[in-house]
Each structure stands twice: as structure tokens, then as C-alpha cells.
Design brief:
single chain; 375 residues; mainly alpha
Length: 375
């Protein structure tokens, strides 16, 4: 009999150990070949830091999953695995889509890729997910919609893939933020999938968490002067974003009836992604209102606001991660008590109000600093 909890733990452990072995080798190669992240006025980090940490992600995830599945089958678990044969097609297409993201990410981190090319690859990845049959076909009451027509579900899925992948990429602005938010989301997805009886997807989430743990350590606690610090780069952000959006879409297809009656699947799918998804919309609207190109980077993300208030990177990271956890806990707790439209709209109002308060606090702080300068 297969122990699915043990599978999750072993997949996480294998990915953790393998990533912990690979990242120091990436650091060694990056410094030998002088492959560093450029420093400019928008960047917060100091010194030379490689941005190739994401190269360790997908190989570690696939290796851990292959070992666990192979071992289960070797010990006679074919009958139990056959019960989850419906997950194999989506998983294979997801791996293909993530591999596309992984390859374009490597190219971008090494030589640079034009945004149009990245966008095309993101569309192709979305098409692969849709081809698997794993697309958004039910909103479970969000904006008062239930079952969607196939054509609308396909469009919604394509938009969701491109949106979430770019949101994860754009939120990667301070040490540990993208990996920390992704870890929080994936831990939640792993637990939710396990409760819903989707053990294969739970194992995928656990394996991905295993790759993020050692990266988080090197990214947040690594010393750049000792050549121990690394960024995930586009490779890591695109790979992680693809797995996250797949988990979110898969959450809408959980088979367990008890699961969907106790919790609203749409709220469970979107809640772990609220901060990166809300932040990218706010930043886009802010740039448009300021008559700036909405696709050019600046310093108006939520982490930039917290830094402008005087918090250091780790304090800002802790605040945002706690905020993400709070969103998940509150939304899940009320997911079947409040209409999802009202619940998500309330999240938007809270997010907007907090950002307005932060902006006013920043302006007040800048005025105080200017007064002191002229005293």
C-alpha cells in the first residue's frame, strides 16, 4: 500500500538535497565565467551576484518525482497509481510547458531574450496546458459565474497562465520574495491537494517546495562577498510561475466531493497568488496614470514601498509573507460562507486601502527627512 504522505516527504527531501548540491556548483561556474546580474539604479543588491539559481529547479523537481514514482511502481504500487491515471496527461503537458519556460528563461538569463519572444513562449505553454484538458471551466460563483463555455474557458486559461507567470517574475524584487511567496503558496496547495485526494499534484507541489528551500537560504542568507549569494533569474521565476498556475488551475478540478462542499475551489485556487497578482495590476495602473510605459520597470512595487518606509529587506520580506499567509487563512475560512465575488472584492479593497496608507506614510516620511536636511 502506497503511503502518500511518505511520497510527499521523500519528493521534497530529494529535491531539497539535489538543489542544495547543484546551486553551489552553479555559483562556482558563474564566477568562473563571470555570469552576474547587472547592477543599476533600480537594483537593490550590491556587488556581483549570479542570477542562474533557477537552473537547479526543474531538473531537481523532475528527478525527485521520477524516483518516487519509479520506486512506488517497483514495489507493486501499479494498481494504486492506476487510480490516478487521469492526472498523467495534465502532468505530461505541464512538464512540456514548464520545460519551454525553463529553456527561454535560461536563454534570457545568459544572453537576453526580447519580451515578445518570451510572450510567444508563454502563449505556447498556455496552449499545452489547454491541450491537456486542464483548463478553467468553472468559476464556482466568482463574478456569479459557474460553468464556462469551452471557448471562454480556453481564453481564461491562456490569460491566467501569462498573467501569473509574469506576476511571479515581476514580484522578484528583493531577496527571498518570489521564492518565499511561492513556497507559501505551494505548501498550501500541497495540503489542499492532499485533503482533496489529489496525491499526485500534492507531490508535485512538495517537490517544488523542496527546490525552493535551499535556494531561499542562498538567496536570503548567502554572503555576496563570499560568493555564496544567488538569484533565481528568469529561469527560476518562469519555471516556478508555470507550476504555480498549473496548481491553481488543477485546484479547480479536484475530484473529491467533500472537498468542494466544504471549501470554494476558486477561492482556494486564487488566494495563494493574491499578492503577486494584485501587485502587478496596481503597478500597471500606477504607471499608466503617471503617463509612463507600463512595461518598463520602476520602483513602485509593494516591496519598494516598504523599503521606502525605512524597513530593511528582511523586514519587508517578513511583512509581505505574513500578509500572504493572512490572506490565505481568512479567505479559506470564509470561502464557503461568503460569495467568492464579495470575498475577492473585499481583498481588493483591503489591498488598495493598505497601499494608499503606505503611500501617504512614505510622503510624510519624505517631508520629515527634507525638513531635517534643511534644519
Amino acid at each position: 500500500m502506497i503511503n502518500w504522505i511518505a511520497n510527499d516527504f521523500i519528493a521534497l527531501l530529494i529535491a531539497l538535497v539535489l538543489t542544495g548540491i547543484i546551486i553551489p556548483q552553479i555559483l562556482l561556474i558563474a564566477f568562473r565565467k563571470k555570469l552576474f546580474d547587472d547592477v543599476d539604479e533600480r537594483k537593490i543588491h550590491k556587488g556581483v551576484v549570479p542570477r542562474l539559481g533557477g537552473i537547479a529547479f526543474l531538473p531537481s523537481i523532475l528527478f525527485s518525482l521520477a524516483v518516487v514514482v519509479g520506486w512506488d511502481l517497483r514495489l507493486g504500487g501499479l494498481d494504486e497509481w492506476s487510480q490516478f491515471s487521469y492526472t498523467l496527461i495534465p502532468m505530461f503537458f505541464m512538464i512540456s510547458a514548464t520545460l519551454l519556460m525553463f529553456l527561454v528563461g535560461i536563454a534570457d538569463d545568459l544572453v537576453g531574450v526580447r519580451y515578445v519572444a518570451k510572450f510567444i513562449v508563454q502563449i505556447l505553454s498556455a496552449v499545452l496546458i489547454i491541450m491537456s484538458g486542464m483548463f478553467i471551466d468553472d468559476l464556482f460563483g466568482f463574478i456569479w459565474l459557474e460553468k464556462l463555455p469551452i471557448w471562454l474557458g480556453i481564453l481564461a486559461t491562456g490569460f491566467a497562465v501569462v498573467y501569473v507567470v509574469n506576476a511571479i517574475n515581476l514580484i522578484d524584487g528583493i531577496d527571498g520574495l518570489a521564492s518565499g511567496l511561492s513556497t507559501v503558496a505551494l505548501v498550501f496547495y500541497a495540503i489542499a491537494f492532499y485533503i482533496g485526494g489529489e496525491y499526485v499534484y500534492s507531490m508535485l507541489a512538495c517537490a517544488t517546495v523542496g527546490t525552493l528551500f535551499p535556494f531561499f537560504y542562498f538567496n536570503v542568507f548567502g554572503n555576496a562577498s563570499k560568493r555564496k549569494k544567488i538569484f533565481m533569474g528568469d529561469t527560476g521565476a518562469l519555471t516556478t510561475g508555470m507550476i504555480l498556475v498549473f496548481c491553481a488551475i488543477a485546484m479547480l478540478h479536484v475530484q473529491g466531493q467533500a472537498f468542494s462542499t466544504e471549501y470554494n475551489p476558486f477561492v482556494l485556487a486564487i488566494s495563494p497568488l493574491i499578492i503577486p497578482c494584485f501587485d502587478v495590476v496596481r503597478v500597471y495602473l500606477h504607471r499608466v496614470r503617471a503617463h509612463r510605459n507600463p512595461f518598463l520597470p520602476d520602483k513602485c512595487h509593494i516591496h519598494h514601498k516598504l523599503l521606502a518606509l525605512g524597513l530593511n529587506q528582511r523586514a519587508a520580506l517578513c511583512v509581505i509573507l505574513l500578509w500572504a499567509i493572512l490572506f490565505i487563512i481568512v479567505n479559506v475560512s470564509f470561502s464557503n460562507l461568503i460569495n467568492p465575488t464579495i470575498l475577492i472584492f473585499t481583498d481588493i479593497v483591503i489591498w488598495t486601502c493598505v497601499n494608499i496608507i503606505l503611500s501617504r506614510c512614505i510622503r510624510a516620511r519624505e517631508k520629515r527627512l527634507n525638513v531635517h536636511l534643511f534644519d
